[in-house]
Amino acid sequence: MSNSAEPGALLDLTLTAGERAFRDEVATWLAENAPRERRPYDGRAMVEFDRAWQRRQFDAGWAGISWPAEYGGRGLSLVQQVIWYSEYARAGAPTETGVCFVGNAHAGPTLIACADEQLKQRHLPAILSGEEIWCQGFSEPGAGSDLAGLSTRAAVDGDHLVVNGQKIWTSYAHHAQQQELLVRTSTGARRQDGITWVVCPMDTPGIEARPITTITGHDDFCAVFYDDVRIPLSNVVGTIDDGWRVAMSTLSFERGTGFLPEQVELVARVDELVELARTRTDRAGRTLICDAGWAERLATARAEAHAVLAMTLAVVSRNARSTLPGPEASMVRLLFSQLQQRVSALAVDLRGLEGLQEGSPWVHDYLYLFATTIAAGTKDVQRSIVAERVLGLPRGR
Amino acid sequence: MPLDLLPDDLQRAIIDAATDLLDPVAAAASLRTRADGPVRDLGVWDKATAQGWFGLAIPEDAGGLGLGTGELALIHHALGRTLTPGPYLGTTVAATVAHATGSPLLAEVMAGLPVGILTTDEPSGSFRTVDREDAGAWLVLSPDRAALLGALPAGAIAATPDSMDPGARPALVTLDSDVECYVEGTRPWTLAILLVAAQLAGIAQAAVAGSVAHTSVREQFGRPIGGFQMVQQRCADMATRADAATQLCLLAALTDADAAQLAASALLVAADAAVTNARDDIQNHGGMGFTWEVDSHLRLRRAHGLRALLCDPTDLRHAVLAGTSARAW
């Protein structure tokens, strides 16, 4: 429709012939290889499911699609990433946050950005192949949204750090072999000073991971205790006391594409609910979709799911042109996380009493998705980021 | 890079030209006085015409600028943002209808002949418009067909009570005979839905800007109220709504296949964003927000007027829920 389709032109959704061919290749591979069965909710079965899927992607060359080729990645362009993630979700591949998530989306990119060659060689291939599961030792009982308030201490003793303290809400700590651990090595002028980012092997003596049962009834995360845990100084990424910068270097989450699979999948999820409302009837035999109340919730959900995709595409477009990712991603996060919750509530509500069936996918999703407005910055913190960094309002209290 | 929602240099230039031309202060002043007669500012209209706004998406060999729906959406976003009144929507859509049908009116429309919109009024069989004093031609618009009519006899147009939107001049229009020059097809309707959505997204964004400007300087308890979390959180939600509406409008504008559902989605999201943000902006202004002098209520009025312009909520929901989800890429 626009004649601005020549290379370099913007405000444009046109794919090149090469990108269309790539899309077809990806769609074909995913149709043949994406797991058909639903992901188990916990235990060994879940771990093996996630690892097997990671391994299958790795063997076919699809693991680490945004990572540089020298570390076993695919080194795809941003557009190809958008295509890959979109087709991934359209193929029905698992979009739940799996045990390989922290390694793929956070620890790996951090190592690529900040670690020395030895750490990269040791861990990156193992992350991509699914051999190494990682967890994230950031949050503490006294430091959640206020991450810089962390107090787990580490003292330098010869060529080791000696760690004492506690982490909490550590997803899959009881399944992980490695942890990206933030510790306090000194107290500087700012609280962000004096934090160190270190690779902590989870089999080091003195570590205890106690699973915590979540509101879904599953053991998704742990409290982790550190009692004189000795970690070689060679495991420090960046330098001692410079861990805040290291941690912040990858919070951009793959330049905005990180949540695309879940976002595309949400559109499909709404489609299923629209279909359900077209077939379920009330006592008078009318289909539920004829009811204005249901229709409004469904239409709003579908329209907002489209909006989330559009906002993400705008963030990706913006990030493609700047070295630092902008705070606009927090607006996407705000709408997306709350929309996920509204859609999962709709999935329960539309089914009446049947919708309450314990152990059903819709009850699991409804409860599990309460995490989306809490984890990775609560919606309250996201709103403060939007107010102060997008809108430039005065700093709040 | 394609799959891109940011404007390029040419598109930026279009936005800048619109921003230079459209004066929100003058527009608000004229709306506030509710003067009789045409609502459009003739000087602004002539300059917009000279810049080629009404032929923006008409191919160059037909005398237009050969740009696309994305550029039209940017213009209408600016019209909404600045609350510019006048039959910009009808004239823009009429040009595409005139081009598609080979109508001799095309040149006149691109040269600034203002075109009002007529929508069917069930069950009376008459038509409704909000452009009663300001149209030299008429566009009959419905979801699956459109027709372009010349000037109507004065007796055909019966004014109805004023709208809460002072930029609207409502009337009931009765035609002597059935309209015979319909062209079938959904494109004019979809374009109109999309451009209304773009205007509403612009209003939503203007409400954010109004609230940020005010709460950054208005002090209570010894500091700007924009530093209070309750106000911050409300502004953050407003910004999120405005961004959702704006980006979805652009995405819908760039999507060729199955654009109807995305345009309807954009209207649904943008209408909610505009009305809700206008309401929140009134609240953010405190006592001043309740006054005639502050622009907040003008955005609320226009938001309601645009939301109801083409279809009611039931029709809109049906359009969004039809079929399976549209794909943009």
Describe the structure.
The complex is a heterodimer of chains A (397) and B (329). Chain A is α+β, with helices and mostly antiparallel strands and 397 residues long. In chain A, 43% of the residues lie in helices and 14% in strands. Chain A has helices at 17-33, 43-59, 78-90, 101-114, 117-129, 243-248, 260-279, 292-320, 329-349, 361-368, 379-390; strands spanning 134-137, 153-157, 160-171, 178-184, 195-201, 207-212, 221-232, 236-237. The termini of chain A are far apart. Chain B is globular and about 65 Å long. In chain B, helix 7 packs parallel to helix 9 and helix 7 (187-217) packs antiparallel against helix 11 (296-309). With 329 residues, chain B is of the alpha+beta class. In chain B, the strands form 2 sheets. Chain B has a 7-stranded mixed beta sheet with strand order 5-6-2-1-3-4-7. In chain B, strands 8-9 form a two-stranded antiparallel sheet. Chain B starts with 8 loop residues before the first helix and ends in an 8-residue tail after the last helix. At the A-B interface, helix 3, helix 7, helix 8, helix 9 and helix 11 of A face helix 4, helix 7, strand 9, helix 8 and helix 9 of B.
Protein traits:
heterodimer; A: 397 residues; alpha+beta; four-stranded mixed sheet; four-stranded antiparallel sheet; 11 helices; 8 strands; 43% helix; globular; disordered N terminus; B: 329 residues; seven-stranded mixed sheet; two-stranded antiparallel sheet; 9 strands; 53% helix; 10% strand
Secondary structure elements and pairings:
The complex is a heterodimer of chains A (397) and B (329).
Chain A: H1 17-33, H2 43-59, H3 78-90, H4 101-114, H5 117-129, E1 134-137, E2 153-157, E3 160-171, E4 178-184, E5 195-201, E6 207-212, E7 221-232, E8 236-237, H6 243-248, H7 260-279, H8 292-320, H9 329-349, H10 361-368, H11 379-390
Parallel strand pairs in A: 1-4
Antiparallel strand pairs in A: 2-3, 3-7, 4-5, 5-8, 6-7
Helix pairs in contact in A: 1-3, 3-7, 4-5, 7-8, 7-9, 8-9, 9-10, 9-11
Chain B: H1 9-21, H2 24-33, H3 42-50, H4 69-81, H5 88-101, H6 106-110, E1 115-121, E2 126-129, E3 137-142, E4 145-149, E5 157-159, E6 171-173, E7 183-184, H7 187-217, E8 219-220, E9 223-224, H8 229-254, H9 259-284, H10 286-289, H11 296-309, H12 313-321
Parallel strand pairs in B: 1-3
Antiparallel strand pairs in B: 1-2, 2-6, 3-4, 4-7, 5-6, 8-9
